[in-house]
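Note to self: keep these together.
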Amino acid sequence: MSVASHFSAEILLEFNKFYNDYDKCKQLCERVDISDNNTLIYLYLHLCKLTDDKDEIVFYTNKANKIYKNNFSNNNSTILNEFEWVKLELYKYNLGELFNYDVYMLSDNAEMNTGRCLFKPKDIIYYRYRIEKQIGKGTFSNVYKCFDFKRNQHIAIKAIRNDKKFKKSGSKEVNILKQLSHKSICNYVKYFEVEQHYFIVFNLLQCNIYDYLKTNKFTPFKPNIVKQFTKQMLDVLVYIKDIDVIHCDIKPENILIEYIDDNNITVKLADFGSAKKKNKTFVGYFVSRYYRAPEIVLEQIECCDYLIDMWSISTIIYELLTSEPLFSSKTEKNLIYDIYKELGVPPDTFIISCKKRKLLESQLLYISQPITLYNKLSSIQDIDIEAYNYLKHSLQWKKENRLTCEKGLQHKFILN
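Structure:
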């Protein structure tokens, strides 16, 4: 079908006279009847062809986009095919693809690798987000600092690996994030998919707790800062407990700093990629080793509830006060040994309830050999006696003996 068949005789005559004149084509657009959708879309996209001004291109592509979505997007015979847009040679883009997006930035869309996305600075995603640098990397994803041309601000984008199991994890994370709205959670802004890759958009914060420690040469946090940190994290645990969500990977890298000075801190819990609903089967990897509760390692029957998050938070409290991990174990066997050397002999009722109790018995040989405890927790007494009391009550072999998040908020360490 020819282009001519979509113009009135008067408009076609004028168009043929100055189709290469940007200003006159622009004036022609203003004279076209607003109900003449075919002509307007064609002229708007023709204007894009005549200019190198990216702002103008975005403006007119969006105008054409809006008309298309409002009038033609549900039509089986799409206007894109009817007008043979490829003849416009609008850069090298498939206009059919462009019309699936709200266009804010026209540039080469970033290459989407199979598996992990490896973007370069200045790559564009979704015709809207410009990559600036990678700011995080995990088992399931990479995180990038980006500029959002719609909101005109920097944001963070989590790019999920598009392997089958990771895509499933990404979809699950989005479903959980949709349920969350809390001032101390890094709530998601937007979720989209491009070429079978899942992307989650978040507001950009300063840095995570681990990077802050590293930047400051692992200087311990002041006790009053740690108290604020603990209260905010306990508030989050109460909140997610009420909706039956367990984070399952609380660690310094997943706690982001929104604000910090000498006397105040505001943090947000991030990365719900490993999160699980209570009573779901717990299989595979969850919780980074340094912050992993003993019942996870030893596979305690029906072990996994929100108290594994309480264990993780408590080990981080120790790390913030001392600037070193409480359990820097290289393997799970070492971790159980280190917990044993810190907390002493576990109760028989705990041992009996664990599927991997042979690991505990063979590794520790606690029946016949006396032990000397590390007593690393005791060092906290010289820093803050109430912090020590809090950790003594929250780091217990048996989860039933640990402080709950509700009781933690009423502890003197927080209230004082």
